[in-house]
Amino acid sequence: MADSAQTQAYNAGVRNNPEKDTDGQRKLSSPTSSFQHPSQGAAGTETRDSTTMEALPGRLNEAVRLCDLSAPRDSVGVVCKSSSTAPGSEDAEDPPANGSSGEQQQANQDDTVAVASAKRTTACPTGYVPTPGPKEQPNTNMNDVAKVDHVEEAQRHDQTHFMAVPLDTIPPNADIPEYDMHLLNLARHADPFRMLGCHRVECPDTDKRVVVVRVWLKNVNHVELRPRAGVSDWRLPPPLDSTSWLYPIRFSVVWIGLRLLELYVQAFEIYTTDPSASSRGPAVKNSDPYVPLDYELLVRGESEESPRVVYDTYSFGMTVPQYNLELFQSGSCWHVDNLMGSHIITVDGVVGVRFAVWAPNCICVSVVGDWNGWDGRAHPMRKRVEFGCWDLFIPGIGPGEKYGYRIHARNGTDFIKIDPYAQEFEVPPKTASIISACDDAFKNAEARYQWHDQEWMAKRKKLGETDQLHREPMAIYEVHLPSWMRGQDGRYLSYRELADRLVPHVKNMNFTHVEFLPLAHHPFEGSWGYQVTGLYAPYSRLGTPDDFKYLVDTLHQANIGVFIDFVPAHFCKDSWGLVYYDGEPCYEYADPREGEHKLWGTAVFNYRRNEVRSFLLGAAYHWLRRYHIDGLRIDAVSSMLYKNHQKEDGEWLPNEHGGDANLQAISLLQELNWVVHKEFPGVFTMAEESTSWRGVTDKTDGLGFDAKWDLGWMNDTLSYLCCPVENRRKCHNKLTFRGLYMAHERWILPLSHDEVVSGKGSLLDKCGYLGTPFEDRIRTLKTLYGFQIGMPGRPLIFMGGEIGQGREWKDNRSVDWHEGEEELRKKLCIWVSDLLGLYRTQPALHAGDDETWNFKWTDCDNNNDCIVAFLRSYEFWFNDILVVCNFSPQAYYRYPVGVPHGGEWQLLLNSDDWKYAGGMCGMGNGSYIHTTQGGRLGWPYCLWLDVPGNGCLYLKSPQPHAEEKQRIIQEARRSREPVEEGRQTDANPNTKADPEGSS
Fold this sequence. Notes:
Region (Disordered): 1-57, 71-142, 964-999
Low-confidence stretches: 1-160, 240-248, 250-260, 275-291, 979-999
InterPro entries: A-amylase/branching_C, GH, GH13_cat_dom, GlgB, GlgB_N_E_set_prok, Glyco_hydro_13_N, Glyco_hydro_b, Ig-like_fold
Helix content: 10-25%
Number of strands: 43
Number of domains: 4
GO molecular function, one term: 1,4-alpha-glucan branching enzyme activity
Number of helices: 20
Pfam families: Alpha-amylase, Alpha-amylase_C, CBM_48
Oligomer: single chain
Distance between the termini: 94 Å
Protein name: 1,4-alpha-glucan branching enzyme
Strand order of the largest sheet: 22-23-26-30-31-32-33-34
């Protein structure tokens, strides 16, 4: 069967292999014809008679010596190669570098993976770089996991070689034991590399050094073996009756009467062509240890006219470095996305896919996919016993192939699981993992996605390194991408289509950042992305990983930051996902009192296991590094912090100290924040934490987040607005209570998706009560936004809120954008845009959000009139902003508000301005209002304002002349120069009293 169209196209472009064989251009075949899915039925049986080979040449070489085969493979197939050339000869290898001993060099090789000889050269196909080689030292940078250190081969095949002479008969001890054959046939063999591939065979009754080659194939009529072109350091002698260098594998074993899987076996006697040896004899003791034959196969099936090249999976060594597995096992493998999962790599010039998965409790794991008919017998994996991991390099397959892992559990069951580290998945409801063509970690620079956000990334890094990120405006637009906008007939728009529509809208609305509800792959859209299965893959329904990169890139080029929701608290319990991954609890706690969240119907990650910690930390790192994400909002932090979160007595287990805190989860969150801030300066982390846990944003003794969602403010404010006006005076403290705890943390002020779904109604519904007119609801919603954006904290508004959508959010349909064309809603949208524009340009509204002196009430106790007024400050008195909010429908004329500065205050925004479809109560935008002497509520001056009903006013303090303003700024800078620790944050830094104070 021919390769898939996608693989053929890829081979023609990215994976161009320049090597040629004697028949012309080499073909990297995908063995799609080698296996059938069991449901397709079994082919007919056939037996083959062993055919005696032609007599071999009587004399191969006058001067040969035997290769030392005395060093067998270990249980996982590690092969280490050292020099057998005599010192002083032309072919002698250089001494170990840095003065290290030969034993130390050998130990270093044992710690890495023997994927190629140190003398081999690898032709790397365009777009991909090789895998780590045997010279890699234990301190290798994880970013260079994909690189192979191939030493240039100084002398090629015309000099020192091994000669492999096919034997007439196979030694009896070369056969696979019947029990092992049975396990292989049932896809239950725990160590397939001990059986398949090339192995040494002991021949105690002779001095011959013999190796045997065993390969799997399906429904082939002819199999030939030859050295791998351009790589192998051994040769086959030509037969007497032919000039061909190919040798047929003549012996086969038929599996239990079925020809579906057939084992082909050939034995070879090994010599070396060393001219210094006078005769054939036993190998010297210091000669090479066992060296496997690097071979390739030419196979021809029943319906094939010409043979095709097949690379035997079990002829390759390990491709996953041991040092990286040790990091993974330690719980601190941040680059685990390069280590685990499926990656297109090259080994000795052969392109294929390296698979690696963690499944510590099972008997065996096989890679199954489209290319092998999802037959678990086709590609059993090698187990790295000490790490509980399984890996396999399969040559000849490429991007776009669907795959999974067939696992045989200790309880005897067999099932197929997804790859937890897959970077692409099928579109739900299908569940297969996909070998990604967008894996930039293993591509050359020219073949990777070409980012164009360098200016944004440099600015972000500088803000992080100078600790100025918290001074920047951060107005967040929360988006559920699948339902933000749909195409005709409800069609999902792709990431690229959404980019063309989302970016202009966000810019026009003056948001600085977008926050996407979880985009990690999830099977059930009704979970909104919070029940994940693929933490390393963007949601496939909207496009490929490169499509998502385009969306982020486009937003960055428009100076819009990108946050995503990240979910390390729990995961879905679909049988093909992470739950009971290898037949036993792996990713979740074993005890259901710890490992299950019954209210949500999800499983809880086991933060006690280091491998799970590497999985979660690596996922966060993956999104920041691969997709240039600017911030992570960690979901459900409360459920991570408390072991008894939303659980009754008897449904949870206390920690080792008898308390209810999950100590392992706490340390994970601390490490996550430390890693993010250390590796990605300027990245912002947020916690959705609904309790009074102290120190969520404390970088020293707390969890280390940059901000915490103020869910208390959101609940208090919305519940206040739902009260009838006559009852609001009784709950006025809901508007002002935040002042008691505001200084304890750094905050996000959310009006999020959680409050406009599941029967809670829309924000417009909450801005009133039964019988409230639509016009009053719109006015109240404008005042709510004015109150939110004026308060300390970064404002967040969920999509649809900017147009006052009438219905609550539905995840299966688009925002009702047609409502935005209505006059009142259109004016609401303009009001939000102007508010956010003011927020971005006035430093008092954002630069001092986290400082105690930045906020002061000027009127907080007027519960009868439902009015609050407060002052925002930053650095200089002329930056002050006064915000007045009236939450009653009653307008108040000449309402007195105390202020600290006398002079002419400018009315920047009036929600009742004609521009916003208001009734023009009071002055319009841009007007000036003079203070009077006498003051109010302890403030030295007073403003007499016309405050509209359900309205909001923004005013700016009097402005000095330009020269005076410059003088004040320079004096302030000089006064701060001697202070080594920088500006004090516990006191108001205003440097001058009001301009009328001395007049």
